[in-house]
């Protein structure tokens, strides 16, 4: 029997697995938060499918998303990453990942973890929406606007409200599975 999934899921197994096992599932560990922070910022202007296909390459290129290691990447590492055909080779996004890693660590120090910081925006409880169709799912919300404004003030790059909302969906802060989806 075929499972009904959200309309955005294509037939590629990598997309199906992501939808079925990750998207909308609450996470609390900082390593996974940092991974999605990097991946979502690289996704800006591209499809998420493109990022998913390159995810393992990103893991290798970005030290398995070890935030301390990424925060210490230097110009030589940037040049190396710009030659890596397995990732998105965009100097600005690579520099942003390094910058954002440093700021991520500052937030960890300030709030004991990034998880503590980010979950406060939804009162530590996932926002569960009950959309009838994918057309109803917003690109931004008041909460994503607030987070984007806060992160921008702190110096984060490539993190506008639309990217933040996708980050919230990816990390389960928001559950936007449509009513007909078996994951809702």
UniProtKB/TrEMBL annotation:
Pfam families: Adenine_glyco. The keyword Transferase does not apply. Zn(2+) binds at residues 6, 19, 177, 181. It is an enzyme of class 3 (hydrolase). It comes from the Bacteria. Its EC number is 3.2.2.20. One of its GO terms (molecular function) is metal ion binding. SUPFAM superfamilies: DNA-glycosylase (SSF48150). It catalyses: Hydrolysis of alkylated DNA, releasing 3-methyladenine. One of its GO terms (biological process) is base-excision repair. InterPro entries: Adenine_glyco (IPR005019), DNA-3mA_glycosylase (IPR052891), DNA_glycosylase (IPR011257), Tag (IPR004597). Keywords: DNA damage, DNA repair, Hydrolase, Metal-binding, Zinc. Hydrolysis of the deoxyribose N-glycosidic bond to excise 3-methyladenine from the damaged DNA polymer formed by alkylation lesions. This is DNA-3-methyladenine glycosylase I. It comes from Chishuiella changwenlii. The gene is tag.
């Amino acid at each position: 029997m075929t499972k009904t999934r959200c309309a955005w899921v294509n037939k590629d197994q990598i997309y199906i697995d992501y939808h079925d096992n990750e998207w909308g599932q609450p996470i609390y560990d900082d390593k996974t938060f940092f991974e999605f922070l990097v991946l979502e910022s690289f996704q800006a202007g591209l499809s998420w499918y493109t990022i998913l296909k390159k995810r393992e390459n990103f893991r290798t290129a970005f030290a398995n998303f070890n935030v301390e290691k990424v925060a210490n990447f230097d110009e030589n590492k940037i040049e190396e990453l710009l030659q890596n055909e397995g990732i998105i080779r965009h100097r600005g996004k690579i520099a942003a990942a390094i910058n954002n890693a440093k700021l991520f660590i500052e937030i960890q120090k300030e709030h004991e973890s990034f998880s503590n910081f980010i979950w406060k925006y939804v009162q530590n409880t996932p926002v569960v929406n009950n959309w009838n169709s994918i057309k109803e799912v917003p690109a931004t919300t008041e909460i994503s606007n607030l987070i984007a404004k806060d992160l921008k003030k702190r110096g984060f790059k490539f993190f506008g409200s639309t990217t933040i909302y996708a980050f919230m969906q990816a990390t389960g802060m928001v559950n936007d599975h449509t009513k007909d989806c078996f994951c809702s």
